[in-house]
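> forwarded from #structure-qc
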């Protein structure tokens, strides 16, 4: 699968280290800017790594490559998981859920995140879903503004069950087929 000059490949369990490496890089970059969105202890917790591994097994984690280099990762889940249910509550099964979108810093400034989101919207549409949903840390105003600027609507806020992580819930309607 392609996004222009970028190749999107499903991550395998053997790629777990690459996925986690990108997330750790993003965590450190955020922490250096006093944004505690992805604390390393929670990111590297056995339960988080296990969740990512399960999503790899299910073909829901992706790597975005430019040539041989891995530029980004994201997870797109086509159903409400237990983890999502904690945030979103009871919902119709009419959405894809975007998680863990992270771009390596050396690829920053090239709108790769925006391009990935467009790719995810198309995947959701192709799966017959009505919405793409995501959550983000409400204390990251730049990210909240970024998603709003991409056409997402903040439809609520909630406690996530993770200490210190208060989430803004974003949703964007997908085109009607």
């Amino acid at each position: 699968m392609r996004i222009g000059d970028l190749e999107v490949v499903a991550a395998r369990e053997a790629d777990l280290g690459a996925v986690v490496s990108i997330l750790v890089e993003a965590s450190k970059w955020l922490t250096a800017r006093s944004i505690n969105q992805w604390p390393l202890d929670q990111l590297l917790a056995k339960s988080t790594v296990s969740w990512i591994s399960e999503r790899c097994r299910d073909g829901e984690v992706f790597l975005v490559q430019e040539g041989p280099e891995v530029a980004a990762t994201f997870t797109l889940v086509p159903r409400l998981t237990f983890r999502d249910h904690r945030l979103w509550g009871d919902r119709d099964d009419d959405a894809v859920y975007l998680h863990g979108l992270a771009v390596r810093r050396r690829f920053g400034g090239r709108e790769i995140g925006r391009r990935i989101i467009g790719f995810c919207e198309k995947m959701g549409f192709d799966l017959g879903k009505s919405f793409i949903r995501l959550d983000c840390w409400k204390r990251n105003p730049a990210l909240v503004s970024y998603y709003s600027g991409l056409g997402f609507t903040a439809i609520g806020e909630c406690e996530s069950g993770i200490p210190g992580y208060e989430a803004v819930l974003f949703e964007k309607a997908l085109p009607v087929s």
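QC bot note: The chain has one domain: 2-173. The two ends are 21 Å apart (CA to CA).
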